[in-house]
Amino acid sequence: MGSVRVGLVIAAILGLADVAALATGDGEFPPVWVAVVGVILGLITLVGVFLGWRGSRNGIGVVILSRALSALSALPAFFIEDVPGGAQVVAVIFILVTAVAIVLLLPAWRRPATATP
After folding, report:
1. Where exactly are the structural domains of the chain?
2. Is 107 helix (H, G, I), strand (E, B) or coil?
3. Region for residue 82 given its phi and psi (left: phi exceeds 0; alpha: psi -120 to 50; beta: otherwise)
4. What's the rounded Cα separation, in Å, for the pair 93 and 48?
């Protein structure tokens, strides 16, 4: 399995975790607005993974963008008071794994499309 496929699998798992966050959260951690944004970004990620798996550079770009935005949505955990330490640890892991997925996907997204004669 190439690095792009590994990156897509990681992104798909993160996207599914985003979708599940709304059902597993208590409304306080993560806040409902973060969970709703996560669901939207998770669904966008899953569509991008499907397209990227089929060879679409644009699909890979969608995955990279949606994962980056999702990771950014985890940053408030470090600036809002009363966020449990466990939630901050999960946020750090989430951001690091997202970074790994993006690094694995970037070469395929940057690669110029080959022209078909």
Report:
1. 3-110
2. helix
3. left
4. 22
Which residues neighbour 74 within 8 Å (Cβ) at sequence distance 6 or greater? 91, 94, 95
How far is residue 66 CA from its own chain's centroid?
A: 6
- Which element (helix H / strand E) includes 112? none
Helix (H) or strand (E) holding 8: helix 3-24
Distance CA 62, CA 46 (A): 9
Phi/psi for 27 (5° steps) reads 90, -15
Q: Contact 29/84 with Cβ under 8 angstroms? A: yes
Query: ∠ CA(14), CA(43), CA(25), 5° rounding?
Result: 60
Distances (CA, A) of 43 to 16, 29, 39, 49, 86: 8, 20, 6, 10, 25
pLDDT at 80: 80
Q: What is the mean pLDDT of residues 16-44?
A: 82
pTM of the model: 0.85
